[in-house]
Protein 1
Amino acid sequence: MIFKYRRGNPIKTDSTVMYIESNNELDFFNKIIKDKKILFDIDENTFVYGLGGSNRGINKIGYTYTSYCSDDPVHTEDKTSLYAAQNFFVIKNKKDIFGIFIDSPSKITYDVGFTEIDKFNIEIESEDYDIYYIKSKTILDIVKEFRKLVGRSYIPPRWAFGYGQSRWGYMNEEDIIRVYDKHYENNIGLDMIYLDIDYMDNFKDFTINKERFPDLEKLVKNLKNKNVRLIPIIDAGVKIEKGYDVYEEGVKKGYFCKDEKGNDFVGSVWPGLVHFPDFLNKDAREWFGMKYKYLIDKGIEGFWNDMNEPAIFFTDRGIENMFSKIEKYRGKKDIGVFDLWEMKDSFMEMNNSDLDYKKMYHNLDGNIINHYNVHNLYGYNMTRSAGEMIEKISPEERKLLFSRASFIGMHRYGGIWTGDNFSWWSHILLSMQQMVGLNMCGFMYIGSDIGGFSGNCSEDLMMRWLEFATFTPLMRNHSAIGTRNQELYQYKNINKLSSIIDIRYRLLPYIYSTFMKCVLRDEMYFKPLAFEFDDEISIRIDDQLLIGDEIMIAPVYKANQNGRIVYLPEEMKMVKFKESNVLCEEILEKGHHYIKTELDEFCIFIRKGKKIPYANIAKNESEVNFDVFNFLGYDNATYEYYNDNGIVREVSEKYIKTI
Amino acid sequence: MIFKYRRGNPIKTDSTVMYIESNNELDFFNKIIKDKKILFDIDENTFVYGLGGSNRGINKIGYTYTSYCSDDPVHTEDKTSLYAAQNFFVIKNKKDIFGIFIDSPSKITYDVGFTEIDKFNIEIESEDYDIYYIKSKTILDIVKEFRKLVGRSYIPPRWAFGYGQSRWGYMNEEDIIRVYDKHYENNIGLDMIYLDIDYMDNFKDFTINKERFPDLEKLVKNLKNKNVRLIPIIDAGVKIEKGYDVYEEGVKKGYFCKDEKGNDFVGSVWPGLVHFPDFLNKDAREWFGMKYKYLIDKGIEGFWNDMNEPAIFFTDRGIENMFSKIEKYRGKKDIGVFDLWEMKDSFMEMNNSDLDYKKMYHNLDGNIINHYNVHNLYGYNMTRSAGEMIEKISPEERKLLFSRASFIGMHRYGGIWTGDNFSWWSHILLSMQQMVGLNMCGFMYIGSDIGGFSGNCSEDLMMRWLEFATFTPLMRNHSAIGTRNQELYQYKNINKLSSIIDIRYRLLPYIYSTFMKCVLRDEMYFKPLAFEFDDEISIRIDDQLLIGDEIMIAPVYKANQNGRIVYLPEEMKMVKFKESNVLCEEILEKGHHYIKTELDEFCIFIRKGKKIPYANIAKNESEVNFDVFNFLGYDNATYEYYNDNGIVREVSEKYIKTI
């Protein structure tokens, strides 16, 4: 059952695909809503789940989260906003269980037992919003109802479930070819190589640097012949440069965001000065989305949309403010500590400043709207722009598309990665925990930068991260320029690393089939134990995940461990992998077990009475036999297997066979 | 057995108190030392312990650590230098076990299986150093030998084991009185209130702001009548101000560090422009140390030495560099991203810059030495200055003294706190892990800022942090100005919080006695399980600690948990505390156990056949009966009880009775 409360005249987000009549008189709404505030009582038996890829644990209690897409790469525990803004959550306590979706692009703050340990306070900045109240018997039922409300999740081609190698720092064709060759020589599975910003001519979207990539089309073709795809980045900002067609057209057609005077808004990002396409304007969306054709025509089959919070490094306003702050102190004797900090702050505030966002305007169906009020819709609509037009360009075949910023609704057009993380052990766990909230909000094709984007990744960290990422739909090794090279062949024990990738490919029929069923049926691919088991131990476990209906994973995410404690909520069959193969299998009783796993070993736990497909060793999705394979798990079990051609856009029960 | 290798002519650190003849021909040294590098092979069965309060886990394998005292408050996993520089470690592998102490004040980098997973590389910047190789049967024996080499650890008065409340932001006498009153009214135990920088007149050491503290002596006396001590901060930098006696004397006597022209070196810290006392100069040390008498004469009985890495916020050099960098861009059109970052970097490099440290000079026994080469000795010698002179001022009675920066040798003069941490759950665990390396290096009176210095501390985080800190010798709640107030009375469930403090006082006879025995016998107060048990599980456990010989703790350090898995390496008796009392006791078998502990519950595990003293409920150290108490643990056990008057400087076996 879904009930809706409408306050004022909310901005249309297109998050939902079903119409629900509002029912403002409902007792429930009157109890919890006080103007722009929503209040719930909580206690030590309350659990709050959801809020997409927000910070901290699976259970959101104990901190504050602000929905405000933020380009902040340092995801320490104290950060309240990461890249996404996803306003759906479920509250479960002893008496009750229900879901809430706040459909509003405005800044929303969730104080979940932080300021007051027994209160969950929500504050919506806007006067206008829709709130959906979703009532059902279980968390999974509530999620399913919610997912129906917001529409079917995006599906990438099957090859996008292969392993991808990325790095900001591949400068030219030779770099790309070397990455391919090194994977090939070292027998490391590979399906995708990603192009970060350096493939472009001066960071201009839909251009190619001809010196570095003299014949991209040929490079794409050559790699495609080896079944490896090149996946370029597209940034939100369009470089201001006379003669550059995207810029010229955008200006002419009025498709860029405006400033308060009605001129095209100017910010600085990688290309230098840019305008920002007005993705809230349907015409601009169609126009920009069709630009992807330029690269699709060169054989490109996938994209990642970046910098679309949108990130703004600085504007003239910020620069002027900085110079004027600093001017005061020029030549001054005895500059004080607080003087210096004032100067420093003038630098710090420039980056992604609300003062700039508040000077930027959109044209939404003819209405001029301040960007600050719809900030959370920007990345969503960039990816919608691409998704809608790519479907027009390629109506039969799926293409790969994922985004950094996101908002509920965007899940229909693309996946996401969790943005710039660090080579921290704690970020393995964080990304595990993020997967749950993201799935609840409809984001299914998801993953984190394996090994960490910033910082230097050691071999053991890479190994453990890969072992978890074996189960994320998006499995991409990505890192920043200036950090230690972290392609798998950079380490000492390449065989050990590549053998983890081998397991990924052996499990690909299972991973893909599970993913497809979850999308088709609005189910969750990643679930915490708490969503299926209600014993006292299961409900608190935040470092194990159920994958589909058949397996549980319990990755090692701490340094210098050769095993970990795993809790089995029921009997399961442990299958341990090593050297591209099953090392051992054992049926384990319900309860806690210390599972020994050396660095290059990892486990799945197959649920009682279940089995899963287990394919041949392959180094590429094309080499995986999706029709003939063995099984892991319990004898006499059956498995519902989803098997299409891996590319068809249709999603249907007809592709499912019980085997 | 201790062997010494000497290279060149090392700077005298006074880290050691025993003379060891050097034996450069020893095969061991020739195998591992290559000029300024030391190399060990490691494998998956190697463990490296020690390096004081350095970052990351108890086992140091998997990362890089640089000994270089750094005022960096953001202790994320990627930081290589924290506040301390402590160059003792133990390597244990299948074949061998030994300790290494590098006695050199220079920057030293330890790459422990990070760059190459099978190599432990050490690089010493200086050409001159002593290396001690310590061979014995067990880790604990090696630690004991090392501790004999470097001398007996500092001991504070017994009241310093009570609970302390601190905050940067107590501005005046009224604030202090309110803190006392609120603790009293709410029945929260208290022994110390700390004064951060605002008690001083313009941040000048050994001055009092008369407007804010019109009669400090009286305040001290009034609080002392209630058995609460006021503990002021002392910073390293001395404000440049005409007429200020410390400044005037220091200049006149030539006791400040010099610049390259021989003028007194100038840096900016809290007071504005300062000189830095040359703590490497014995005369300057005596002079500065005697200044503490000014406050001791007002009844003060303890101090914390801060900013003694030394922190330098900026110098004229940095400011000039910044202005010149920025000047280039003034009025420039189209400032690029990298232009802006160059400007920003010119701000960032100002703080604690090596460029400044390299312009600062010491007078060590008549030799002029560049600060950069002896940087790690600075905080050590500040605290040595205070410790040596306070002992002269008060030869009979111990005083409280601890420091932020440290180096081995300093452990004889004071304790340390782990510096500016964050209100992060992960920092409970980090501080647990730091305790081990610190104890190995001789630092015994230690603790971390409870609740976190930076960031906002929620009630549940405070509760769990207190539960761990119940066992740290230094138990201080400290936080930064601008953060959420985190005195215990600021939260909803004050009783639950204060009942944890009650347990601290009930365990005070045990904590103090254990501490004293460990100092007397060069033993460790905090030990990982690996130091006493060699089973496969114990050696990997990094989140449980043994305290003395009698108990094990396994704190809950994760949010939203009402229990955790605890591993018992042998049978133990669990004692669970709640509401200031024992809630239950149970003998548990060897193995893993899920121990349920609600937010306000916590456990100790008493080792088989042991018992510990358990005193009356008290709200202050003076109320604890150290002569008459009950016991927790196994019947028929005995306990070696150290019981002196809590203040006498003598340490002796004579104070130990078996009871």
Note: Chain A touches chain B through 69 residues (CB under 8 Å).
Protein 2
Amino acid sequence: MTTSSSSYVFGPYKIDPREVFYTTPFSYAMVNLRPLLPAHVLVCPKRLVPRFTDLTADETSDLWLTAQKVGSRLETFHNATSLTLAIQDGPQAGQTVPHVHIHIMPRKGGDFEKNDEIYDALDEKEKELKQKLDLDKDRVDRSIEEMANEASQYRSLLDQ
Amino acid sequence: MTTSSSSYVFGPYKIDPREVFYTTPFSYAMVNLRPLLPAHVLVCPKRLVPRFTDLTADETSDLWLTAQKVGSRLETFHNATSLTLAIQDGPQAGQTVPHVHIHIMPRKGGDFEKNDEIYDALDEKEKELKQKLDLDKDRVDRSIEEMANEASQYRSLLDQ
């Protein structure tokens, strides 16, 4: 699959197509600037809508079928045994970028001391993500090459 | 809408139809034995499958369209401003009852000191839920009448 070179929006931000590893008519999946765990990725609708209820039925179905496929492939690829799938839908639920996005994280025994500690970390990461996207010059902690390389691996994975 | 009197399965457990407030061809929504917040409800596929990837495309779409509708109605009804939507998909992600279920929680400012503390609480609740379902005699903390009454309110809400 060739990822279109058109740009992807994520709230007010423009996402480099090299970070995107899977696209469908309504959705796209991208690697993370600072993944919390290996293969912590995001699945978003292509259309910029802040809230889950704003999606049409076609967009909703497509988004979750995409998440299902992406999650399943990444879980196997990373020898994980479970998945965390979550939408922080609105600011009072911890959403910082006002564009619907599903967090997908392959999980294994012992990855966090308590299974649920991942959510504290997730919330911190969501704040950091926003700060990093806001301050483009600070985007040095993970290079585009590293992200493009990971995305390229997942691209072949999703092609199978 | 009249909820069918047929029983609903939730993993190894049988759910009283009075706790169920919305059904579709593939999914059902039920109130919680011990809600973490007002209107903390669960949306499940009717078919007993442990993992999200086990669902067919029709089941996946139906499940999330149901969650979208239920979440939106309950958020408005409870004057909330956001929603937490999460699947703990597999034991290493905190799932205790081996039957796919979406946690839906309407959120408002200040409902938890930190937005993400809800997840610690959610994990504890999931463990308690399992214990309670395992020990039927202990199901006294919330009566079936109270649950049926809440379900009945939501039933009219979803009918609109």
Note: Residues 9-128 of chain A form a domain with the HIT family, subunit A fold (CATH 3.30.428.10).
